[in-house]
Design goal:
It contains 14 helices and no strands. The protein is mainly α and 325 residues long. It has a domain of 100 residues. Helix 1 runs antiparallel to helix 2 and helix 9 packs parallel to helix 12. The protein is globular.
Length: 325
């Protein structure tokens, strides 16, 4: 038996409550909020749908009370509802034995479609355009914008462009409309991928006696269809020359295509990186350090490895030769 296999966990009420509480704490922690769906999904996997869903709803009620009493606004509560949806969605993908990559992509695209429909419908009920609605919200948040300006001014090498944008709500709204869809797309799939990976690995280790059809290795074998390469080329062309050959939005669309497809190539490249470290025998602390350094310092290089894997099949070089070879 592998040394990293743990005995089946004791399913106590305290552990269930701790999972629910940790999801709320992670949601409020800003940087670590990306991992908030993990305890929600794990509670459903470990304790079943009834108890897992119940602890998630209790967490939502707790989050609502905290945001109402302490922050006087419901942004955090709205985010936690998304966390619950992600956690429940990941748990259902695993419980139904759906292929992780297929389930992740379908769920992510469905969530983005729902978000777009709800957002568009809400703005239409305000009888204003999207840009006008954003400008209105920015003007109502004047105090916060002033605080941001002070922080930028006090920082070394203050960003003149950022200061100019904060002084012009219309310009800031236009920039928001250009960048928000891409960033929300990237954020959704990064959150889904990493949390699905952690839940798959935790399930394999916690319930080692069970034989599951899928594990975290399915995600490490993420393969972007070769048919997407022409679309990436079109995106690159538009990102570079779109403003010269047509309307300015072509350049924005090109950059969006490159960033969104680049994310999927990043997932493919991440799997190659993991296999490379295994081939080199890098384990434990040093493996974690190298993975984190690569993600933070060279995500573009990881994405490039995923892209060129379509032609070079890097994994065929990760085979140790035997003496007979």
């Amino acid at each position: 038996m592998s040394s990293d296999v743990m005995p089946n966990p004791q399913l106590s009420f305290g552990r269930l409550a701790l999972l629910g509480l940790s999801s709320v704490v992670l949601s409020a922690s800003f940087i670590m909020s990306i991992f908030a769906p993990f305890p929600v999904a794990l509670s459903v996997i470990m304790y079943g749908r009834t108890k897992g869903y119940a602890v998630g709803l209790v967490g939502a009620a707790l989050c609502f009370l905290i945001t109402s009493l302490l922050f006087k606004e419901q942004v955090l509560f709205g985010f936690y509802l998304c966390v619950l949806l992600f956690g429940f969605g990941i748990a259902e993908i695993l419980n139904r034995n759906v292929k992780p990559v297929k389930g992740l992509v379908i769920f992510g695209l469905s969530f983005l479609t729902l978000l777009g429909v709800l957002g568009t419908t809400f703005v239409k009920t305000q009888n204003v355009s999207v840009e006008e609605y954003i400008v209105k919200q920015l003007e109502q948040s004047g105090d916060r914008l002033e605080e941001q300006k002070k922080l930028i001014q006090e920082s070394e090498g203050s960003n003149i462009e950022a200061l100019a944008m904060l002084d012009n709500p219309k310009l800031l709204a236009k920039e928001f409309i250009k960048t928000f869809p891409v960033y929300i797309f990237i954020g959704v799939f990064i959150m889904l991928w990493f949390n699905t990976f952690m839940v798959l690995k935790s399930r394999r280790l916690l319930f080692a006696g069970n034989d599951y059809a899928h594990s975290e290795h399915d995600l490490l074998r993420f393969q972007v269809p070769f048919a997407w390469v022409p679309l990436l080329i079109i995106g690159l062309v538009l990102a570079i020359w779109g403003g010269d050959i047509g309307p300015a939005w072509l350049e924005v669309a090109g950059l969006g295509i490159v960033k969104c497809l680049g994310l999927f190539y990043f997932f493919q490249g991440f799997g190659i990186l993991s296999d490379l470290l295994s081939f080199l025998g890098v384990l434990g602390f040093w493996r974690s350090m190298m993975v984190m350094s690569a993600i933070l310092l060279s995500p573009s290089l990881i994405a490039a490895a995923g892209l060129f894997d379509n032609w070079f099949e890097f994994r065929k070089y990760f085979v140790k030769k035997t003496k007979n070879d």
